[in-house]
Amino acid sequence: MKPLDIPPPLxxxxxxxxxxxxxxxxxxxEQGDECALFAxxxxxxxxxxxxxxxxxxxxxxxxxxxxxxxxxxxTVSCHDDLGAADLVGRHLIVGGSTVWCDGPMxxxxxxxxxxxxxxxxxARKDTTVVLHPLADDRRVLPVERTxxxxxxxxxxxLVVSYNPGYQNLLKSLKPSTRQRFxxxxxxxxxxxxxxxxxxAEGGVGPEAAARLVQLAQALRRLxxxxxxxxxxxxxxxxxxxxxxxxxxxxxxxxxxxLQALSDDAQTVAALEQVAAAVL
Length: 279
Ligand code: ADP
What we know:
The chain is built from eleven helices and nine strands. The longest helix is centred in the last third of the chain and has 17 residues. The two termini are 41 Å apart. A five-stranded parallel beta sheet has the order 2-5-8-1-9, with helices on both faces. The protein has a two-stranded antiparallel ribbon with strand order 3-4. It is 41% helix and 16% strand. The protein has 279 residues and is α/β, with parallel strands linked by helices. A hairpin with a 4-residue loop joins β6 and β7. Bound molecules: adenosine-5'-diphosphate. Adenosine-5'-diphosphate binds next to α2, α7 and α9. Pfam families: AAA_5, CbbQ_C. It comes from Pseudaquabacterium rugosum. Belongs to the CbbQ/NirQ/NorQ/GpvN family. Keywords: ATP-binding, Nucleotide-binding.
């Protein structure tokens, strides 16, 4: 891929603990060439679709790249009650008069921000009406209630994510939507990268981080059988933080990882056996 002139990460992986201050770019450990792909998509004004299991780093990638590219970031976590008006805006009654109030999408379009719609397939289908003209080369937002057609400011970028594992026939992106996006798939990081993430984000040493990653790998091999979800990087980071705070590793894993994967007592007991063999 042709290199692109983007500022380097502002913070590199610390050897041990995480020390991200508020002024720093959120640290992101790259799995492949996703940062360059993101930057190229931004430069070409192409919308980006990020697929991947929950807790694998999609949000962190977007936060990291927004900081590197110097763009404001507007994030919306989509849910099944979220419709076009929630994104675009609505009229509100203030002191007896009606005023228009921009929604997060409209603000992002006007400001030239990166708009990140997390779990976009959860949103109501009427959001398609506003997504399509923004995602293709028109780059405009039609505001039905006011009759406005707002052109996206030059820096505007639409980024959406979803977890293909959750897909069913009722909840999937329509081909006409999917084909408007450049797509990027993230998965669990390679073990050594994941161990670096767990050490840095969870504040534990390399040995504990490696054992947590080994546990995740053992649990991921079971995935798909009785479990809806497998152990994510996010869960490993949570376990690492509990351990760094003083909890023994097996206890931290039970609370942050095993209990999160199932509510069924028998399943949790089986997971504990797997954990006991690794930890
Ligand atoms: P997703 O959006 O895919 O559900 P997140 O981006 O919120 O997942 O990641 C969850 C947590 O896992 C983050 O807060 C961070 O601590 C950690 N994490 C996952 N992947 C990475 C990565 N590549 N670099 C740094 N931290 C990561």
